[in-house]
Amino acid sequence: MSQSSPPAPAHTSDGDQPALKRVMGSGLLLLFIIGDILGTGIYALTGQVAGEVGGAAWLPFAIAFVVAAITACSYLELVTKYPQAAGAALYVHKAFRVHILSFLVCFTVMCSGITSASAASRAFAANLAAGFGLDVGNGVILAIALGFMLLVLAVNLRGVGESVRINVVLTAIELSGLLLVILLSLYFIAGGNADFSRVVAFETAADKSVFLAVSTATSLAFFAMVGFEDSVNMAEETKDPSRIFPRIMFTGLGITGAIYVLVSICAVAVVPVGRLAESETPLATVVQTATPGFPIADLLPFISMFAVANSALINMLMASRLLYGMSKQGVLPSFLSKVHRTRRTPESAIVFTTVIALGLITFVSLDPDSPVVSLLGGTTSLLLLAVFAGVNLSVLVLRRDQSAVKHFNAGRVLPVVGTVTCLYLVLPWSSGRPAGQYEIAGVLLAIGLALWLLTWVIHRRQRPGE
User: Fold this and answer.
1) CA-CA distances (angstroms) from residue 292 to 49, 179, 270, 271?
2) Per-residue pLDDT band at 210 (split at 50, 70, 90)
3) Three-class DSSP labels, 401-426
4) Long-range CB contacts (within 8 A, 24+) of 366-371
5) Burial of 156 (0-12, 13-18, 19+ CB in 10 A)
6) pLDDT at residue 167, rounded to an integer
7) Bigger pLDDT: 440 or 321?
8) Cα separations (Å) of 20 from 23, 237, 244, 315, 355?
9) What per-residue confidence (pLDDT) applies to 465?
10) Which CATH architecture is the domain 26-460 placed in?
11) How many CB atoms lie within 10 A of CB 119?
């Protein structure tokens, strides 16, 4: 590829630190976005979404895709305007200049990583039991989930050498599982065994209108679409981000959205909604129903395990590094920035986030009838939808900040629609979310505020004259 301009200098503007190396082109960025979106949501929550709206489970996924695409427009304007690796917290800080608000946005993103990883650990345990044909109760599933999270802790403490080539492999495996569901379902459908009447049948709870049921299901399905926002943190490592980000972001969202809608249509056509909703491994149930006794069908629980394990590890890596970064900036207690002497990993932040995850998994699993994955997945989407509302609003505020850099423009209507839609899916009286999601989110944010207040008190004591 020819160079139209001289290479960027090897140092940042402050002259102290080297700049990140720009290694990601269009293809690798697309694989990163697709790989980040694919994961726990579609593998674990298809049945719960169907339980809210019946056979029309594809509709919440389609609506979640539209909401994600609208919010992606705001992210694209901001990442092409400010191509820096800081994401939502940077945008909100530039817009409002309120430190506690910027901190809350950053901590909320971190909490979403913990709840997402916790949901993944429970899904991992359920798929492991299904893969080995184990008929076990809630206690054993909980023990497996906790053991898996401890394994993630060990890997995280040891240090993970991440590379784009590994991401390509992980994406291929996750994608293969979803394509397997689609292909084997089509084989079942071609044999005349599917019931397509279920695909357009709304079946809602007696206490919910169709509109509220769709809102509740969309709030849950949105968990499957999150991940696209993480790509903005790769801006400083992407070649010509202002040019390629818009096209690649929409392509990645379009591919994953289409796959999700196809998977949900196939799922309800193959498996009755009631059975699908009761399964903790819905896609494995679909494959086993479509091709009973077919050896390759037995692989899906293990592919699902791999997909959700990857989601858990990525999210716990993200959460611990965010906590470490906030501690380094002096907004959280300094012990959270302690680094292992030989492994050079942020050990205190890793242990702290893992303890929160272990407590969270245990707490939500105490009730054997609790839909653990949907509760934690719904909390993840709740936290991120609140962040997305702030990002959409920041776009409008930052229009006053004129930039000489040519950047994507989301227009005036889409950020407003994005703000209103995200807030609608956050508020309890409109989204139909269970109270447990707000309780979990509230406790996590209370922990953050307590840590922030502790840090403020410590700093005040260290500088009594100020």
Assistant:
1) 24, 18, 12, 13
2) confident
3) CCCCCCCCCCCCHHHHHHHHHHHHCC
4) 368/137, 368/138, 370/436, 371/48
5) buried
6) 56
7) 440
8) 9, 6, 18, 22, 32
9) 54
10) Up-down Bundle (1.20)
11) 33
Distance CA 307, CA 310 (A): 5
Closest CA to 48 of 351, 384, 375: 375
Q: Which two tokens stand for residue 31?
A: 């694989």
Scanning 279-344, the segments in alpha helix (DSSP H) are 282-290, 300-328
Element (H, E) at 49: helix 40-53
3-state secondary structure of 24: strand
For residues 263 and 190, the answer to whether their CB atoms sit within 8 Å is no
Q: What CA–CA distances, in Å, run from 394 to 362, 384, 385, 418?
A: 37, 15, 14, 11
- Give the other-Cβ count within 10 Å of 109's Cβ: 20
Domain chopping of the chain, boundaries: 26-460
CA separation for the pair 72, 77 (Å, rounded):
9
Q: What is the pLDDT of residue 22?
A: 67
Model pLDDT, residue 164: 47
pLDDT of residue 165: 54
Contact 123, 116 (CB under 8 A): no
Record the pTM: 0.85
Decide if pLDDT at 127 tops 90: no
Residues present in the chain in total: 466
Q: Hey, CA dihedral for 218, 220, 221, 224, is it positive or negative?
A: positive
Mean pLDDT of the chain: 84
